[in-house]
Each structure stands twice: as C-alpha cells, then as structure tokens.
Specification:
The chain is of the alpha/beta class. Among the domains are: about 170 residues, 3-Layer(aba) Sandwich (Rossmann fold), CATH 3.40.50; about 80 residues, DnaA, N-terminal domain (GMP Synthetase, Chain A, domain 3), CATH 3.30.300. The protein has 22 helices and ten strands. Helix 5 links the parallel strand 2 and strand 3.
Length: about 550
C-alpha cells in the first residue's frame, strides 16, 4: 500500500516563487541573498499556517546553494540542495522552543553553534515558537544572538511577537507575515486539485478558504478532509455539510422574510438551523456577516470587498438591490449587540429570537415614519396654501385701504388749502414736520416709522429724539431722516442696519434705502438741540469755563 502524504506536506513550497501570499517578504529575502547583505538574526512572525517556517527553510537552502539560478532561487541540483531535499542537511538545525525552552536547551544550542558547516557556507538555526522560551533561556541566548560566528544565522519564528523580550527584538530583522487572501488560497487549492486529478467546485474551494481564515496549512487539511468524504469530486453541498458551515441560502431566505416583516417564518428558519446542530452564536455572527456583505454590495466601489464565489456574489447583488441602507445599519446594530450579549445571556435562544423580531419590525417602523412624514408634508403644504391665500387677502385689503386713504387725504388737503387761502395769516405747527412726497406708499412708511419709534419706548432718549426728528420720503425707494444733533447721528449710524431691515420688512419694499442728515446748527439761525449729558456739559462749560478745571481737580465724570 502506498504511503499517504497529507497535502500540507506534499505541496509545501520548495522555493520562494511557490510561496503563496507573501510576495514582499520573499522578494526582500531574495534581494538580501543577491546583494550578500545577510543579517545574523531574523524574526518571522504572523498567524499560523502562513509560511513562516517554510520561508525559513527555503532561505536556509538558498543561501547554501552553490549554483543559484539567475533569479536567485535554489538550483535543487548541487550537493547542498540535494541534502536539504532529502532532509539530511547538516547546515540546517531546527529547534522546537515549545518543548525545548529551558536554559540547558539553549546551552546545548550555543555549543552547537561553535561547529562550522561542513558543506555550504552558513549554518542556519531555525527556532520555532520562540516565544515559548523562558526568561532565563532568553537571557542565556542574548549574547550568542547578538554576536554569533560569521557563518551562523538565526531565524526565529513565532505567532505571538508581543511575548518576546524587547532585547531579543532589537537584535533581529523583523518580518511580519500576512494572512493569505481568500482568492490566493482558492487559486492554490485549485492547483492542488488539478495535480491530484480532483474535480472541485469553485464555490466549494471558496468555503474551504473562508473556513481556513488565511492559513494555507488549514486550507490544505480541510481539502484532504473533504476529499476523504466525497472522493474525486468536491461539491458545494458536501463541503458545507462536512465542514459544518451554515449555507448561504438560509441567510438569503431569512433576510427576505425579515424585509417582509414575517416573524413566524423567521423564527421557523432559526429553529431549523438549531435542529441541524448549529450554535446560536455561530448563526448570529454569520447573519452579521451577511448584512455586512449586503452593505458592501450597495456601492460598486466596495463590491470588491465581498469574498465569495461568483455565483453567490450575484445573489448578494440582487438582494442588496431590494434592501435599504438604513435597514442594513439598524439590522447590523441589532445583530452586533446580540452577539456581544450572547455569552452572558441565560436564555440564549430567546435572545436571538428577540433580535429577529426587532429586525422584522424595522421595515414597519420605517413605513410608519415615511407615512408620518408624508402626512406632515401634506399638512404643511395645506397650511402654506392657506397662508398664501390669507396674505393675498391682506395685501388686497391694504391696497384698498391705501386707495381710500389717498382719496380722503386729497380731499382733506383741498379743504385745508381753501381754508389757508381764505385766512390772512398762516400759523406754523409746533410739531416736527414729516414731509411725504410719495403718496402711493406714504401711509405705509409712516405707519412703519411710528411702529419703529414705539419699539424704543424703553430707551427714553432715543425715543424722544426719533419723535423730534423729521422723516422725509425722497422717492418710493428712499427715505431721509433729519438728525437733531451729532450724538444722535453717531447712535443712528450704529443701528441703521436694524432700521433698514425693519422698514423693508414692514413696507414690503426690499429696495428701500434709509438716509439721515444733521440738522442746521446755531450758526445757520436754528438752535441745536441739547440732548445728551455731554451736550449739556459742553453748554455749561461755554457759559462757565471754570467747570472744566473743577472737573479735572476732582476727577469727575459727567
């Protein structure tokens, strides 16, 4: 009977170009061999099954090759390469630190380092799971690691870099290995299947790659397991049954029922999943991943983040077209909170069922909210129409009032003119005169101005000053106010924007401009109005200059 060799050993890479998913690291190692810039210590760290020990062996084999190829790969023909391939090379020494982690084991290694290589140029010491060494063993290893013989090279491999002493890290060149991408794993599994004359569905290989979680060794182990179960033909259904993976169809059907607000069918599907032997935590975690995949399908830019087969990808695109982003965000939040609370829950089944009920209710709440917003919008539109109608009626009444007032004004003015003609003497009014030239808007502007004055009723000085001044309508877009003194002129300059906005809003004339000017002083024959404390003080100082000296001596203020 022919001895069976597992695929992880049989298809273990023998040169740099056959290493999967670590191109940057293999290129760096080949360039260091090409330029002969070899460090005395390397640290390979990363997840399990990504090629750390494999790259260390290939590196040790290549630097001892006596006839490397043009691309600096090992020739596999020289004595050193043949000895390596037959696992009898004395230039490569491997130590498992998980079981040899004492000071005595490191002392034996140090003694072995003193022996130079018999074939080749370098002795390479590969220490796997180096983080398992004790603190005393690390300290005993430090001096040799820092200053080894020129022919000795140490390659340390670990999955937990954070457990290694900083003094060890500082003496090594560190290479971080990445998880192998799903597409790279699928491609390599397809190559292995072709070599073994096995027919495999691409979706089945994709499931194996996802289950392996970036580890090629695990993927090859799963591959052997499926081959033992199904023979020379690997199908998607056989793969999910053997690897205990929940079928995508469950999630697609469940999402459809959730979108339809069908709580009963959603709970029945969950019950079927539990009866098939799946754990509730595994189910809710897979549902979160399903909603995440639907989310990335909403945008063509992020579709590339979907790590599934082409057939299943089309299903995701189709269902993503029926789902709303807000629904997916809320469903993701519910499933994530359920996943976090699952371990601490006493009634785990009820926790998941409650989450499914909440998800089914998302669409109902969204529908109610949409209907509410729609009804509110209709009500607002109706109110707006009523408001517009009321405004039109008000404007019509104002125009009618203006016309009536103007007619009355004209008749009253005529009567006053006749009366003034018959009288022999004209009397001047003691009140400030407000000249209005634009009869079409005179009443409106005057009313607005009077209303403005009333707003300053709590500011007595400003109120009296505005009452005492004259407002003149120059034309339909310009009004001018006569300021009684310079102090008021300064104050008016500060509040002018407020006055303009007020008058424009009240009159409905957005082009209305407000100007002001200073009234004639005493030199022109009219007395300047004494208004503020400063004006009163200046007036008294003019009459009695000694007041200025009194103010200065006693440091007074007015």
């Amino acid at each position: 009977m022919e001895n069976f060799i597992v695929s992880a050993r049989k298809y273990r890479p023998q040169d740099f170009k056959s290493v999967v998913g670590q191109y940057s690291i293999t290129t760096t190692l080949k360039n260091s061999i090409k330029t002969k810039q070899l460090a005395h210590a390397y640290l390979f760290c990363g997840p399990r099954g990504v090629g750390k020990t494999t790259c260390a062996r290939i590196f040790a084999k290549t630097i001892n090759c006596s006839n490397p190829a043009s691309d600096f790969e090992a020739c596999n023909e020289c004595e050193s390469c043949i000895a390596f391939n037959e696992n009898r090379s004395y230039n490569i020494h491997e130590l498992d630190a998980a079981s040899n982690n004492s000071v005595e084991d490191i002392r034996n290694l140090i003694e072995q380092v003193r022996i130079p290589p018999q074939i080749g140029t370098h002795s390479v010491y590969i220490i796997d799971e180096v983080h398992m060494l004790s603190s005393q063993a690390f300290n005993a290893f430090l001096k040799t690691l820092e200053e080894p013989p020129e022919y000795a090279i140490f390659v340390l491999a670990t999955t937990e870099k954070h457990k290694i002493l900083p003094t060890i890290l500082s003496r090594c060149q560190i290479f971080d290995f990445n998880r192998i991408k799903i597409e790279d794993t699928v491609e390599y599994l397809a190559y292995v299947a072709e070599q073994e004359d096995i027919e495999a569905d691409k979706d089945a290989l994709n499931i194996i790659a996802q289950k392996a979680d970036g580890a090629m060794r695990d993927a090859l182990s799963f591959f052997d397991q499926i081959v033992s179960f199904s023979g020379k033909k690997i199908t998607y259904k056989q793969t999910i049954e053997n690897l205990n993976v929940l079928d995508y169809d469950y999630y697609f059907k469940l999402t459809d029922f959730i979108l339809e607000n069908n709580i009963s069918q959603s709970l029945l599907i969950f019950d079927e999943i539990l009866n098939n032997g799946f754990d509730g935590n595994h189910f809710i975690s897979g549902l979160s991943s399903h909603f995440r995949d639907l989310m990335v399908c909403k945008d063509p830019v992020t579709v590339q983040l979907l790590e599934v087969g082409s057939n299943i990808k089309e299903k995701y695109k189709k269902q993503a077209g029926k789902t709303d982003v807000n629904f997916l965000l809320k469903a993701l939040d519910i499933s994530n909170q359920t996943d976090l609370a699952y371990k601490g829950s006493k009634n785990k089944r009820l926790l998941v069922e409650l989450a499914l009920m909440k998800m089914c209710n998302i669409s109902v709440e969204s529908k109610k909210k949409t209907e509410s917003v729609s009804s509110e919008k209709k009500a607002d539109d109706k109110k707006e129409d009523l408001s517009v109608t009321q405004e039109k009626k008000t404007e019509y009444k104002k125009e009618l009032t203006k016309t009536t007032s103007n007619h009355r004004r004209i008749s009253i003015n005529g009567a006053i003119n006749k009366k003034n003609t018959s009288n022999t003497e004209n009397k001047k009014s003691d009140e400030p005169e407000t000249t209005i030239r634009d009869t079409s808007s005179a009443v409106s502007i005057k009313d607005a101005w009077n209303e403005l004055i009333e707003k300053f009723n709590k500011q007595v000085r400003m109120y009296n000053a505005l009452k005492a001044g004259n407002l003149t309508v120059i034309d339909k877009n310009t009004v001018e106010f006569t300021v009684i003194n310079k102090s008021l002129e300064q104050k008016l300059a500060e509040i002018k924007p407020r006055i303009v906005n007020f008058l424009r809003n009240k009159t409905g004339n957005k082009n209305l401009e407000f100007k002001y000017k200073l009234a004639n002083d005493t030199k022109s024959g009219e007395q300047n109005f004494i208004y503020t404390d400063r004006d009163k003080y200046k007036y008294l100082v003019n009459k009695n200059p000694n007041l200025e000296e009194l103010k200065r001596n006693f440091d007074l203020d007015f």
